[in-house]
Design a protein that fits this description.
The complex is a heterodimer of chains A (268) and B (372). Chain A is mainly beta. Chain A is built from four helices and 17 strands. In chain A, β10 and β11 form a beta hairpin. Helix content of chain B is 30%, strand content 2%. Chain B has 14 helices and four strands. Classes of the chains: A mainly beta (268), B mainly alpha (372).
Chain lengths: 268, 372
């Protein structure tokens, strides 16, 4: 785009302004954007095939994805609807393939989000892990994909599991199911949730060739994975194991504010 | 099954008119009808479809479990275990609940402030994975396929949902199952007969027990009051919503009032410590059949339940759950403790026994249709 100072004539300035308005209105989001995701453990890839640490689950919802340009301005990414993983404002990422230690999962995976934005070059991104409130308390049997996956829904708490993550070792394992709790109202009429538990991830140095890494060793750093004791967290306030996981995600747990989230990282 | 269907149809008189007959609740005139959500009206066909589904093990991931596995008619639709066990062997943190008159529950399950519809509640046992109960999560499409492929279900689903383009959906299966549960209504206990004017229906002992139950000394009625013996009751003509959750002093871990971490009651929903150990007061109808008692099945007999209330909270002397529930800071002010003579104890027990409606256990409307 031409820098505005090169325009000398007021009339052409007006013309340029109206072209800008017109193009913003019809075809602003013409650039395809892909954001890939990958799971890691202490800097190494982790998957469902047994190793000292293997994945048992990793599925989550992403909404409000923004690209940050070199001026620090934010550009919303609109997701491309595909009737399976993405609708306009929420997409599901699925990094488990249902094999070996992920036997409770699904064979299909969805490792990158596809969208359109009004820019193609960016230097950072920001997104929310979670389902927007307006969509979060719908009936999962009536909702459109990807919000029709019962594994990602919390029937008794109302709302979706924003994030399901788990790892296993030879003799031990742990998992997290994250979602909004302390909601007010009734299932068909949730008015608000005192603990929304949506994670806002900002990666200020992220360029189009990068991937978003989810470091499960950071997420589960507080869990003893050698004591053979089942230690999981389904976001309940009495679950002591949740404190470390929430902390690592930068979320408040039982009135304890989290640290700066360290789980989501840039992979070059 | 077609025979059973024919019988169900025969009892529905106006079927020839091509309209579904109005559902007839079998409820004495003195009692209100349950409230029914607008999007799931009752019909004879729907309840019948729901009855088959309720008893159908094909609704579980490994073909071993139906709703009826944990809700058995002969136990007033409970399972007799302290805590239920899911189809893959996982232990549920809580005790199964009676489904008799659940149609009147203003909130469902032991401690959930959000769940107020049977249609929503049914999703948890069917699809939930923590714990796995019926284990259909991720396979819910199979429920619709079952309705579409089984010839009897096909007929029944089509009749039940005549205006649906595709009546063979998991949503419709859930609606029908909920309608069946809603149909399980009982007002035929000796106590009901007594209220209806049959003074001889209660023994003198049970009558004295009734006075104790409704006395300020024992306070039972504060939480187990009303026609359904629970303050979490609603009905079609209710004007105010009644929802109650109470801590009745079962636990007091570390002198802090805490409950075991997998069963903290309403606290798990709200995160507010004042909700620690608060549970729904269950209906006491048919309570002689629903042992063991409490949310975790931790009291074996009704006698011990009475001891618990008489003491004003439970003392657990040692082990991981040690603590004196009587001293819990979160205990309800209505659980105060009282002294009972042996005769009074027997009287209270006689009254609780008079809340049992034997007809529920054999009423053919709710029996297993797969068993001839």
């Amino acid at each position: 785009m031409q820098p505005v100072r090169s325009v000398k004539h007021p009339a052409s300035l007006f013309l340029l302004a109206s072209i800008l308005v017109a193009s913003a209105a019809c075809s602003a989001k013409k650039n395809a954007v892909q954001i890939p995701f990958a799971a890691t453990w202490e800097g190494q890839p982790i998957n469902c095939n047994r190793g000292p640490y293997s994945l048992s689950d990793l599925r989550f919802f992403v909404s409000d994805l923004q690209l940050i340009d070199s001026n620090g301005a934010f550009h919303t990414v609109e997701f491309i609807e595909d009737d399976r993983w993405q609708q306009a404002t929420v997409a599901m990422v699925d990094l488990e393939n249902g094999e070996a230690s992920c036997a409770n999962g699904t064979a299909d995976t969805h490792t990158r989000i596809h969208g359109v934005a009004d820019i193609s070059d960016f230097t950072g991104i920001r997104f929310t892990v979670g389902v927007p409130f307006e969509l979060n308390h719908a009936n999962p049997l009536l909702a459109a994909a990807p919000l029709n996956d019962p594994a990602m829904h919390w029937h008794w708490r109302s709302g979706y599991k924003f994030l399901r993550a788990g790892v296993v070792t030879e003799s031990d394992g742990t998992w997290l199911h994250l979602g909004s709790i302390a909601c007010n109202g009734t299932v068909r009429d949730i008015r608000s949730c005192d603990a929304p538990n949506r994670i806002i991830v900002e990666l200020p140095h992220f360029v189009p060739s990068d991937r978003v890494g989810i470091d499960l060793s950071a997420l589960f750093a507080g869990v003893d994975l050698r004591n053979g004791e089942r230690s999981d967290c389904s976001s309940g306030p009495a679950e002591t194991e949740c404190a470390g996981m929430f902390g690592a995600l930068g979320l408040t747990f039982a009135n304890q504010p989290g640290s700066v989230g360290s789980v989501f990282q840039v992979l070059h | 099954m077609l025979l059973a269907l024919a019988i169900a149809m025969a009892s529905a008189v106006v079927i020839q008119l091509g309209k579904q007959p109005a559902y007839h609740w079998d409820i004495p005139a003195d009692f209100p009808a349950p409230s029914v959500p607008n999007d799931n009206p009752m019909s004879v066909e729907k309840v019948e479809l729901g009855r088959w589904l309720f008893y159908d093990v094909r609704l579980s991931g490994n073909g071993t479990m139906a709703c009826s596995t944990c809700h058995m008619q002969r136990l007033a639709f409970t399972d007799g275990r302290p805590r239920s066990i899911g189809s893959t062997g996982e232990l549920h943190p809580r005790n199964s609940m009676s489904l008799v008159n659940t149609a009147y529950a203003s909130r469902l399950t032991w401690a959930n402030s959000l769940l107020d519809r049977l249609e929503d509640q049914a999703l948890t046992p069917l699809l939930g994975d923590n714990p796995v109960e019926m284990g259909m999560g991720g396979r819910e499409a199979e429920v619709g396929e079952l309705l579409a492929s089984d010839p009897e279900y096909r007929v029944l689903a089509r009749r039940t949902f005549p205006n649906d383009e595709n009546p063979y959906s998991v949503l419709n299966a859930v609606r029908a199952t909920a309608a069946f549960v809603r149909s399980i209504i009982s007002f035929d206990s000796p106590y009901d007969h007594y209220l209806a004017g049959d003074a001889g229906a209660l023994s003198e002992s049970a009558e004295r027990g009734m006075d104790l139950f409704f006395s300020e000394r024992l306070e039972c009625f504060h939480c187990h009051g009303g026609f359904n013996f629970t303050d979490s009751t609603t009905h079609a003509s209710a004007t105010v919503e009644s929802v109650g959750f109470h801590n009745n002093g079962l636990y007091n871990l570390d002198h802090s009032g805490a409950y075991p971490s997998d069963n903290t009651g309403l606290y798990d929903m709200s995160g507010d410590v004042r909700d620690m150990g608060r549970f729904k007061a269950p209906s006491l109808r048919n309570v002689t059949l629903t042992a063991p008692y409490m949310h975790d099945g931790s009291i074996r007999t009704l006698k011990e339940v009475i001891d618990h209330y008489a003491r004003g909270g439970r003392l657990i002397e040692s082990g991981a759950q040690a603590g004196d529930g009587r001293l819990s800071p979160y205990k309800s002010e209505f659980v105060v403790g009282f002294e009972l003579s042996d005769q009074e104890r027997a009287d209270l027990l006689a009254f609780l026994t008079a809340l049992t409606d034997e007809s529920v256990l054999t009423n053919p409307r709710w029996t297993n249709p797969f068993e001839p």
